[in-house]
């Protein structure tokens, strides 16, 4: 309004298009543009006297919107990661969660599906909140899923920053990005206080709660929320000023009892997303992992000054099928790339014994931790602590963080606050150390300081290190935090307890933890970490008995589940590969007939995921009985090209195969 006298008619028209002024003002602006300062005063008087809502919009709401845009541009522009973000501009449109996404650990999902899903459609980021057709309406509740480290928070930052620059979704007046980490700091909130506490410059939250401006509320990281969402027992609340429990507030917002005119976008790991009833979700999307070119670009970005090293790292990743699948996730690709690069640099050092290239998960993380412990970090100059001092410091830090990691894992807790640190006896000054900053990230929110491990697998490896060390001297069950339990003596008893709990856990969230625990008993990991975190050759006392126990877990019955496959992964981590090699050799020679015992069936299910023999075609001709076929059903789902000829199947086996082909998880493209 102040500049109205300086505008030409054409400039006024452009300014109106770029603003959210109501239609009735536009006509008046057209008439008065270029008529001098008197016109501006006339327009202001006209609006004040004839339309108080319009005057509020111009004098209060419009500046508030502008302030919000500037605030988001400043905050998200600085924190946006560089690197290949193209994959985030196109999301996969999915029809709900598959069984494996609802039940399995992220890493098991990746391994079983080879990082792929049968997708027919994708949706550009700028159309995420638009109708899919001319006759449909915009989605109110959108959910975007992705495994840990795939880039959910980066996607949110990219969207918010692009919107704040007014490049996409200009019809949305307010985008309100919140994280569940922030919400964890509150016990009770009202809908309006939720807005004001996160965005103090929004002085009129009723403008949003009343639905006067199109709003998008973003809730990032449902898997990090401290309280499970219970939609079946939601206490209905329709008053935006009433303070209620935060979990109840979220369920009321998603149900549409509060902020009913706002669109809501939730991001989450797949298992946590299953808390939201499918009937409430209007649109579900999934973030895809790296393609081949994107993985190369990412590694080139990591090793900008050494393209040779980048090529070598990529070669090693591609040579290991499981590792290659895992590295489609950016966070895992960074950890693996750093570890392999550290190995390659050290393998050229003639003064040291040539180490073995990391192949197992435990070896990758051992190299990563050794790199962090020794201060030989890619982004910072090498630290010059005396070895003894460095070892003592690192043991203290890893011990403190390990206990936090382990009991956090048991409680499904991945975000921690200062009160958690104090409860676990962690000296806050320790958190300032460079080692700590490499393992534990810190985030300042409006109301508190949040800490979280740089990736879920970092928490799991630290938890395994803590358990491994504590199990050697513990006299009570370590899974009972209070320490009140029947006596449990000896490392092997504690090892068995951990494996059994993993096998019994319905949510499968201990699977990777026990893989790491088994991996700490491997000769290669002991060699890497002895002197730092492990005692040299101590694994020899327990390894053979641990292997026997794991093999005993396979010899049960003809139901080959993901639990059996994970036990095979544990044997691989502990460097006991004889069973898998025997079955793989038989597959190559097409001599599996008659040798598929329960143990060998478990090995076969494992090989279907990891073996190069199964990459182009899975040949199970002339070797399956009805019972064996039934036991392998859940694993056959993920074979893209499957040969089952000459198995003498009758109708009952054909019915089983029919049920597989109609499953949502099924990835079979070709069946012979």
TrEMBL record:
Domain named NACHT: residues: 140-272
Q: Which InterPro entries match?
A: CARD (IPR001315), DEATH-like_dom_sf (IPR011029), LRR_dom_sf (IPR032675), NACHT-assoc (IPR029495), NACHT_NTPase (IPR007111), NLR (IPR051261), NLRP_HD2 (IPR041267), NOD1/2_WH (IPR041075)
PROSITE patterns reported for this sequence: CARD, NACHT
Concerning Gene3D superfamilies, the annotation shows: P-loop containing nucleotide triphosphate hydrolases, Ribonuclease Inhibitor
SMART domains recorded: FISNA (SM01288)
Origin superkingdom: Eukaryota
- Say where the protein is mainly found: membrane
* Location in the cell: Cell membrane; Cytoplasm
Question: Secretion signal: which residues?
Answer: none
Give one Pfam family, short name only: WHD_NOD2
Keyword terms, alphabetized: ATP-binding, Cell membrane, Cytoplasm, Immunity, Innate immunity, Leucine-rich repeat, Lipoprotein, Membrane, Nucleotide-binding, Palmitate, Repeat
Q: Name one GO cellular component term.
A: plasma membrane
A single GO BP term for this record reads: regulation of apoptotic process
The GO molecular function terms of this record are: ATP binding
Q: Domain CARD, which positions?
A: 1-62
Does this entry carry the keyword Repeat? yes
Q: Is Cell division set as a keyword in this record?
A: no
Q: What is the protein name stated in its UniProt record?
A: NLRC3 protein
User: Which taxonomic lineage is given here?
Assistant: Eukaryota, Metazoa, Chordata, Craniata, Vertebrata
